[in-house]
Design a protein that fits this description.
Strand content: over 45%
Helix content: under 10%
Number of domains: 1
Largest sheet: 6 strands, antiparallel, barrel
Distance between the termini: 33 Å
Number of strands: 8
Structural class: mainly beta
Radius of gyration: 16 Å
CATH class: Mainly Beta
Number of helices: 0
Shape: globular
Order of helices and strands: EEEEEEEE
């Protein structure tokens, strides 16, 4: 793996469920880990339905293997790249060689908290 290819900074965020003062539960995203990634497989896509347009761009982030991200899941984590939030759709451990992990992501409509 060429380290020079890891040239874009991303943030991995983790969700936690919190309760407000009257007992309502809601999700709060907090920064979990900052790291550098290689960006690949960008596929900008827009979907139009019922007069609305949704941006469903897909992108892959390849990151260096580390203890902080080895147990990452698609349900409790997301990626923030250039103030855009990406939902993790799949995780590829690259043949479990413990060198890189590829995150298959899709742009979501959530704004960065």
């Amino acid at each position: 793996m060429k380290i020079a290819l890891l040239n874009e900074r991303i943030t991995i965020q983790k969700v936690e469920v919190v309760k407000d003062k009257i007992g309502n539960h809601f999700n709060r995203w907090s920064d979990y880990f900052n790291l550098y990634a290689t960006i690949s497989s960008e596929s900008p896509t827009e979907v139009t339905a019922a007069g609305n347009v949704w941006d469903e761009s897909k992108i892959d982030f390849t990151v260096r293997y580390s203890n902080e991200i080895k147990d990452i899941t698609s349900t409790n984590y997301r990626v923030v790249f250039k103030n855009t939030v990406y939902q993790i759709k799949g995780i590829d451990h690259m043949n479990y060689k413990k060198k890189t992990i590829k995150l298959h992501c899709q742009r979501c409509e959530d704004e960065k908290d």
